[in-house]
Design goal:
Length: 201
């Protein structure tokens, strides 16, 4: 995503309240992984969508912000044999997630029953569940209903899903202070041209 597009979207979204919602969600993510006794961050998408870019952005933010627990473990529905060590983790990791873990689910479309079952297992065992998903109303038993906190992203003409991931990762890396979501977005626009700190993804 180029800085010109981000700048245009910044103007488009100013005053809608959406940037503030992103900042609040990202703050919850940062607090969850940074809390005393906090554990790993488990990042998972749907069977059709793996959040590679968000994994890379969070890893970069972990370096830039000195919050190492922002580095996620990417969970995959069907990790292939012979994949690199950081890409072999399957959904079974969710079943064993305990109260120290944070589970971030990224689902541009409806989450399937297997994923929902594993997320429910993680929540039942005390994990904090955050959801970045499509804008359908939350229902009991679906992803929105299982999440402790949810950021619902609208259609491509409103809040593009890739932009939401950029903003969440950037805001999660920023320490609490007086800077607004617009300030963070302006900084993000400048940093998008900087080579990533980590390139393993």
């Amino acid at each position: 995503m180029d800085a010109v597009r981000v700048s245009a979207l910044r103007q488009h979204l100013a005053g809608t309240g959406w940037l503030e919602a992103v900042g609040g969600f990202a703050g919850s993510l940062r607090r969850s992984v940074s809390r005393r006794g906090g554990g790993e961050l488990l990042l998972v998408g749907t069977e059709a969508y793996e959040p590679w870019h968000l994994a890379a952005h969070l890893a970069d933010e972990a370096v830039w912000s000195a919050v190492p627990r922002l580095v996620p473990t990417l969970l995959r529905h069907a990790p292939p044999a012979g994949a690199p060590a950081h890409l072999v983790h399957g959904l079974r990791r969710l079943t064993g997630a305990g109260r120290r873990a944070t589970v971030l689910v990224v689902a541009p479309e409806a989450a399937g029953p297997t994923l929902l079952e594993r997320v429910q297992d993680a929540r039942r065992h005390g994990a904090t569940v955050l959801a970045l998903d499509g804008a359908a109303p939350a229902e009991p038993g679906d992803l929105g209903g299982l999440a402790h906190e949810r950021l619902a992203v609208g259609t491509a003409d409103e809040q593009p899903f890739d932009l939401a991931q950029h903003l969440v990762s950037a805001a999660a890396g920023r320490s609490p202070g007086r800077r607004t979501a617009l300030d963070r977005l302006a900084e993000l626009a400048g940093r998008l041209t900087v080579p990533p700190a980590i390139s393993r993804w």
